[in-house]
Amino acid sequence: MAHETTRYHGTCHCKKVSFTVDLDLSAGTTKCNCTWCWKTRRWGTLVRPDAFGGAQGTEHLSLGERGGFCTACSVQTFAVLDTSGWEWSEGDEMVAINLASLDDLPVADLIAAPVTYLDGLHDNWWGPPAETRHL
Ligand SMILES: [Zn+2]
Ligand SMILES: [Zn+2]
Hints:
By secondary structure, the chain is mainly β.
């Protein structure tokens, strides 16, 4: 499948952490109702590691090179996930991107992107929750 990607630049709020990611937003985004995603108001997407790069300031991240949240400003940027047990994954690792950390992503493009809703709250990660309007 051919993907047209756009390079976006992400930062945390205090700008100590930065990175780039090549995204095809038409490939989809996710919102989930699990307690982590709900408490962090997460709107994300997953990319292969080769679409991710230029990470700077990772010494400020809670998980270092593997991402997490900035220990200075608390904002989540990215996280490298071990996806070796995930059936649909394209590899052993994927990078979860917090879309809100992308500085040059036009709002119009974000709201045009398809959203897949996950019912993580009920361990039903591959099905939609009964209610999605609050996510
Ligand atoms: Zn920060
Ligand atoms: Zn979740």
